[in-house]
Amino acid sequence: MQKKLDKRFWAAVLIFGLMGQVAWVVENMYFNVFIYKMFHASAADISAMVMASAVVAAVTTVIMGAVSDKVGRRKAFMSVGYLIWGVTIIAFAYVRSIFLTIVMDCVMTFFGSTANDAAYNAWLTDRGDSSNRGRIEGVNSMMPLVSILIVFGGFMGFDLDTHSAWKTIYYIIGAATAVIGLMGFFLIEEAPGLKKSEAPFFQTLLYSFRPSTARANKRLYAVLLAFAVFGTSIQIFMPYLIIYYEKTLGMANYVLILAPAIVLSAVVTVFYGRAYDRLGFHRSIVPVMGMLAAGYLLLYFFRSTAPVFIGSLLMMAGYLTGMSVFGAQIRDSIPENRSGQFQGVRILGQVFVPGLIGPAIGAAVLKNAAMITNGDGTTSFLPNANIWIAALAVVAVLAVVVAWVEKSTTVKQ
Questions:
Q1: Which alpha helices (H) appear in 302-410, and where do they start and end?
Q2: Confidence of residue 411 (pLDDT cuts 50, 70, 90)
Q3: Range 196-204 contact pairs with CB under 8 angstroms and sequence separation of 24 or more
Q4: 412 pLDDT band (50/70/90 cuts)?
Q5: pTM to 2 decimal places
Q6: What domains appear along the chain, each with residue ranges and CATH number?
Q7: 211-235 b/e (C-beta count within 10 Å ≥ 16 → b)
């Protein structure tokens, strides 16, 4: 029976999904810019920060996802989590070193992953079913690029070379995230059929990591492997994306290049989610790989505005639609009433593995990158176009893995 999705549900998805992604965009795309501009971080520093955050996100989601299943509640974890998440973002206004930024990033990630990665994602799974999963994921997966658009537009009014600008930004984003947490107490509705797990906690915690569970849910684990390869390709370039546009390509107006691409990509993703409901996983993921590959090639070979725009559009559309397709397939494959327990293994594929391997590949590719001298006499590296070829190579691996998934598992057709 199809679950009814009312206006209150969609309002919660829009508010919690969007604000959560705004906070993650600030972390994933602008913390790198923050330590690059304020502390002249190296590629290795940026890689270390991304990797540390990925580890914390994975461990937190494994534990807190199981806890939310154990108590049979999502609402409290979402609301309280967003509230404290906002407070930790405000704390970045007072950070003054690369080391402290990495430490605070890990602290912030704990609360963000509790609220968003564990509780919010489990709640989305609880509230949907196979008849509407693609539609939910189409809207939810649109949030990352819509949030990028919001953050880009908002940041245009700030001089990111000054500490005062960053302090204001952290206060605004942190306060907004905390307010969303307060709203959750009145807006979020638990899934009607949600029940607390009666199993012992550690049995609940370790359930999704058992070989027997993997054998019983072969499709889910195979798709998670493919998702990890997909995410690795994205994480090769994502930590350096803004720096690449602004410093390497010399596009001070990079927002005006990326903003239209983001809007178009978001529109494509909404319709693509519906396509998944009709076509299934395999026939939906192949065009995603094609868009990514074409975008990477254009960004590697060209530096002028028009081809960079087209390449950015294809890259972002591939990224966003890929998140939608993988997200929908994973939710469709998670056993009912166990969504919290599977958020940990999901985050391994979505964040942990890509967050360790992708930035490491990116840092290796940029090891001998050109250096520039800053106004204060310090030096900074310039990301080069090799990140796109490295990302393309991983897409080739993804094609092989997807073919294996199609051959060896029964997936939604």
A1: 305-333, 339-347, 353-365, 386-408
A2: very low
A3: 196/69, 196/70, 196/71, 196/72, 196/73, 197/69, 197/70, 197/72, 197/337, 197/338, 197/340, 197/341, 201/66, 201/67, 201/70, 204/66, 204/69, 204/70, 204/341
A4: very low
A5: 0.77
A6: 7-190+202-408 (1.20.1250.20)
A7: eebeeebebbbbbbbbbbbbbbbbb
